[in-house]
Amino acid sequence: MSESLNRGVARERIEDLERPALDDRAYRIITLRNKLEVLLIHDAKTDKASAALDVNVGSFSDAEDMPGIAHAVEHLLFMGTEKYPKENAYNQYLNAHSGHSNAYTASTSTNYYFELAASLSTPTNSKAPSPNATQESLPTLKDESPLWGALDRFGQFFVAPLFLEDTVDREIKAVDSENKKNLQSDSWRLHQLNKALSNPNHPYCHFSTGSWKTLHDDPIARGVKIRDEFIKFYSTHYSANRMKLVILGRESLDTLEEWADEIFSKVPNKDLPRKRWDNVSVYTENELLTQTFARPVFQSRSLELSFLYRDEEDLYESHPSRYLSHLIGHEGPGSILAYIKAKGWANGLGAGGSSMCPGSGLFNINVKLTEDGLTHYKEVTKVIFQYIAMIRAQPPQKWVVEEQIRMSEVDFRFKQKSPPSRTTSALGSVMQKPYDRKMLLSGPAVIRKFDAEAISQAMTYLRPDNFRLNIVSQEFPGGWDKKEKWYGTEYTSEKIPGDFLTEIKHAFENSAKERPADLHFPHKNEFIPNRLEVEKKEVDEPLKVPKLIRNDENVRTWYKKDDQFWVPKANVQIYLRTPLPHLTARTTAMSALYRDLVNDALVEYSYDADISGLVYDFSTHSTGLSITVQGYNDKLHVLLEKVLVSIRDLEAREDRFKILQDRLTRGFRNWDFGQPFHQIGTFSRFLKNEKAFLTDELLKELEGISAQDVQQFYPQILAQCHIEVMAHGNLYKEEALQITDLVEKTIKPKKLSPSQLPIRRTLIFPPGSSYVHERQLKDPANVNHCIEYSLYIGNSADRDLRAKILLLAQMTDEPAFNQLRTIEQLGYVVFSGGTFTDTWAGYRILIQSEKDCQYLEGRIEHFLTSFEKMLHEMKEDEFEGHKRAVVNKRLEKLKNLAQETSRFWSHIFSDTYDFLKADEDVKHIEPLSKQHLIDFFTHYISPRSTSRAKLSVHLVAQAKPKESTAEEHKLQAIQTVSTILAAENITPNTEKLRTRLLPLAFDPESLKTGDAVSNALLAHLSEDLKLGKEVVDKVLDEAKAALGLAVEKAVGGPVQIKDVHIWKAGLQMSTGVKPVKDLGEFMEGGAKL
Ligand SMILES: [Zn+2]
């Protein structure tokens, strides 16, 4: 025992936490002398360590005149501390140890967390970390554990952050860009509208993200020093007694306790109280009984009832609101949804209570309406109240809660591990709540008792004089006369008209006879699992490859009995291979409708299974159909059989067809209004694959398809296809074979000859090529451009190239983010990394930004050029560190059964059967030298390379900032040149540059040729700044790219892809995907004849 532990003799330690049956971690809760409560988790087998710190302050504490300040402080806290003043010290350290970090700001808490490798050594293929590590062999030395270094850097944020002056503006820009990313997103817009229309005296009403205006311009206009305000917020609200720390590592609890003590005892304690909002209501009578009609960006329709509710933090043993959400949100026979769906009014329904903050809560019911449902919104509202009245007419039903208790206990008992940072971050936030400390793990999940009294009280909140009504639609009722302040959402809002309210009250007071007989309590749930036995056969080493137990001409079955997670669950995947669903845009659209009709028909039946931890999925793909059933294996076959029969016997009913066709049409249209960075990948894939359909094409086809067309088409898909099944989990081999028989006998497909199986190929981009494809963003109001800059490297089956891409992605990860996001603030969304689709392997950088794509293109080239220099100068040990980091990532341990299933399935579904891919990657990364990477970079990546192949997709926003004047152009040019010079560590001379640029015309036409501007820049760099030729060339090139000067006239410049079809026809195709070895070799006992 060490010194520091002896000092804390009197410290209370809670270790006997209620835990899942399979949980092999050790827990300890302590409180440091500064009143910081800490949960320590020792996990001897983990390959990742993590910590999270949750501070009990969030946007509800924002200063009224500085909305977003809590969020901005969260951003700024990362930017340098007294002990580690370099602003990217933390991220650099995490990146070097296969780690990452994140943080979020909620209403009443701010949560910071990270995750990284648990040990310095690399687990090799053969020597996985020993599962039997004893206490003695656990790491205790700080320099042997990456966790110590991360904790020390992390802890300083809460001990002595610097709020570095020159990072303040940049991080406000990041916040501003984050806000701009959300501006066209309905979930943010409608949430903010609800907030804006709540009680102005409750902090819920505020805008919480913040923007350049609220955090920069407005405070400055008031004469406020922004940085001082941030420091003030931090020192007013951050205090050790408001913090909850969770540390998870391989070290013993004693070692973790010692480290927590050493680092986090230094966090200042100000004994601040836990904030509550008891005497202020989210809705007062001013806001209640109001109806709001809002116009969304997406073509969606919904109705929401929002009841003033209560905070149930203290009622965690009975969770009374779950009684209400279970019944109101039910989708089976007798439910609200089943009833209004049968009427053709709705597609979906959700209900639930939320404790918004200590002292306030809401209960919301949200219905997705059909076109007809929208015109019947009053009837829908009345049905909901009739149902509520029906459940209120009965005393709380014990059997309902008993089902819930049983299921919550089973789920908790067999809860599997989630990734360490998810565990620590979630527990940090749970610790802020008043759970009995022994129930920290179980409290949020388990319902312990039936509390009729608490449920009766809960029901009293759902009354016709205690709610608000929101209707969202692009068409109805029109004439929105107000605009929400922060997002510009158009809406109207008024008191619910007296006659409508009377009707609602009447519906609520209906006698049982007046209520529709179709509304009733759910039936007993037959899907709650009873058989929970797991046959546990210990093995030395879990199998990495499933066994092929059947391999006929037309049927393959893969099987693995679980050998490491020991849960009473199984995952069954079924793949019906056929080219038919993706033959043309029309068959693709018909298949999508078929899928939607099947899923729609199964809603009522599958709901009980769903809430009993047994779910199914039915999807269409470019190479066929897939069916998945996952969950407790007890009743898996019951659900599977029903799903298969529904797929085979679907009756495409005209009424449901119309509703689903409308929903799918809206879905396709809405796609154009999604985030640019979500859209752009589709265009890139469209250009990499020979055959792909864009939503535009599918939309056109959708209009002309009838229910009858689908009814005639889908049997054709099923008539002939290849069957591949994988059964994984708590199942026997015989069961896997029976499942396969069931599929075969139910679907009865004819054999699909191998010559008809689709082959996956992608286009080859020739060396020295450079393509640009430009598209206009359809959403006229979105201000964000997006670029995806891709370099084609080769065939993804080439293991050596793949290894180099993975290593390059690891090495550029932190520098790309640091340069393009943190330093240059191009936008909130910045990604870099490898891309592997079918046979296409490449490297890409993606940026979403208000800056135009040409400029971004220039900045990416600049980054790659400067990274090339970094790579040449990289020290050997740093290079080896990167190799270790990527190896660690590839060998990351599986956390649960579902992860293992999806790994197996991805290898089957991709046609490669490359089950040992991760090990192969490691084998090919380990021998790489720095010179290998330099050669690779020079050939495939460097902007100077004449052999690289580039494809750049530009998604251009319509909402351009207003046309710049010549003066603004000049300012922008000066700024651009200054940024580029600063990146080269050269002090710019703005005055002299101004003198050079001032006399030039700078109209759009002269910019296109750009000679005068280039000459002025050249003169400035070589004469005014007297820079060497090499630097001048580099800066000039970048500046020209950034200002869009060099594009048109560059020799061998990029080819604009205009006619995609013709362009594709001019390219060659890759070899196709094939199994990494003969499938017969996967058969049990070797090759099968
Ligand atoms: Zn943020």
What does this structure look like?
The chain has 1089 residues and is an alpha+beta fold. The protein is built from 36 helices and 27 strands. A 7-stranded mixed beta sheet has the order 9-10-8-11-7-13-12. Strand 12 and strand 13 form a beta hairpin. The protein starts with a helix and ends in a 20-residue tail after the last strand. The structure holds zinc ion. This is LuxS/MPP-like metallohydrolase.
Instruction: Write down the oligomeric state.
Output: single chain
- Strand percentage, roughly? 15-25%
Name the shape in a single word: globular
Please bin the fraction of helical residues: 40-55%
Kindly, what is the distance between the CA atoms of the first and last residues, rounded to a whole number of angstroms?
A: 64 Å
Sheet/helix structural class: alpha+beta
Mean pLDDT: 92
User: How many helical stretches?
Assistant: 36
Number of strands: 27
Radius of gyration: 31 Å
Going across the major beta sheet, what is the strand order?
9-10-8-11-7-13-12
Unreliable runs, pLDDT <50, ≥5 residues?
1-6, 124-136, 1047-1051
Largest sheet: 7 strands, mixed
Bound ligand species: zinc ion
Organism: Lindgomyces ingoldianus
Protein name: LuxS/MPP-like metallohydrolase
